[in-house]
Design brief:
single chain; alpha+beta; Helix Hairpins; 7-stranded antiparallel β-sheet; rod-shaped
Amino acid sequence: MRSVRARAALGATVVVAVALAVAGLAVLLVLRANLTDQAGLQAEVAAREVAGQLALGVPYDRLEMGDEEDHPVQVTDEDGRVVAVSKDLEAISGTGTDRVTPTLAPSPAASASASASAEDGDEDDDDDGTDSPDPARREVSTDDPDFTNGTATVDGDRADYRFASVEATNAAGLTLTVHAGAPLAAEQRAVGSVRGAMLTGLPVVLLVVAGVTWLVTRRALRPVEGIRREMAAITASEDLSRRVPEPGSHDEIARLARTTNETLTALEASVERQRRFVADASHELRSPIASLRTQLEVGAAHPELLDVNGAVADTVRLQELAADLLLLARLDAGERPGAALLELGALVREEVSQRTGDRIPVTVSVAEEAGGLEVTGSRAQLARVLGNLLDNAERHAHGAVAVAVRAEGGGVAVEVTDDGDGVPGAERERIFERFVRLDDARSRDEGGAGLGLALARDVAVRHGGRLTVTDAGERGARFVLWLPGAR
């Protein structure tokens, strides 16, 4: 099933079906247990009535057993012999013995009389030789009866019964067990009716649940379909200024729409930034290429007029610009920095020592730390950052450029300062944008292409660090490169 609505409807239907099945089974079990307990109570009452008569010495053939069809009765002695059964009882099971024909045995009264005569045979008695049962020896068991399920056939009709077994002791000390049953037909009819109602109603309930879930899911997913259509239209038209509709429900779908619009906004800004980057790069490349071509054409026509130094300078400028553009492209593509272990103090000294053509000498100070000034990253990229920061300082300084390296905040900080005019507060973030030059600070002829500081910050961020600019005292600018320490 590829449709979310179909899966949701099916899932809800299955869950409801399982829940209703479990609940229905529990209801049936509870109902059956209650009705079975009621039948057992009826059987116990019938058994105790007969047991009471036996305790009073009523002869077996004169026992009042009530409605024999509703309460079949079987009486057995201590040896399991059947001594009495209810009228028309033809077969029985579940009472310990399936015999329904009474065994010839003395009645309770006769047994009691014989027992009394045996005990008083050595005494004179003025009576007729018979004694009434001793009331003190007559009792009906007060223990909870034993319950069993079985069947009985009464007058040709076979049915299921719940049997209760109650013990009674007559005056002669004979213990008899009365098995009396109560029909389970009412329990079976009630359970059958409830089960039938459940089986009939369950499909209807499941159809209702499936239908309601389908409609509710369809209504809930309608904004998603609107978002999908709008995204498809944006993809087809390539118009990133369009936005998907945001529902006013303030739920997950509304948050999805807002996140989608935020993504479109970021994508539009990225594409626009890329377009500006391409346009600015094309413009920056055009100037040195045009200058170099002009000089070469003049040199070809008039060799004595060829400006070799200018051609070399334009070539170097073109080479550096191409290298910056290539590095920025790799950074934008998500290239990870290297994992080489670098000592920033040594790296700074090495880079400064190679700058022999600077118009202002660079002062270097490295704080000696017990743990060293080590970081991890790409040596070439970090050297490029240092070179760009020094080029910027050389371009704007009046007479002093200084570099300081120290440990700071669990990492290493490289501070490049100059005594130039500084950076206005409103421009301190703008100078890190690509192809940005401050009009009052540099021109295309004297300055770079506006990529040095942008590239330096990108490299710093890729290495998990940061690059910021502040005032250097009364005048000048202070650029601080912070990188996390080596792990």
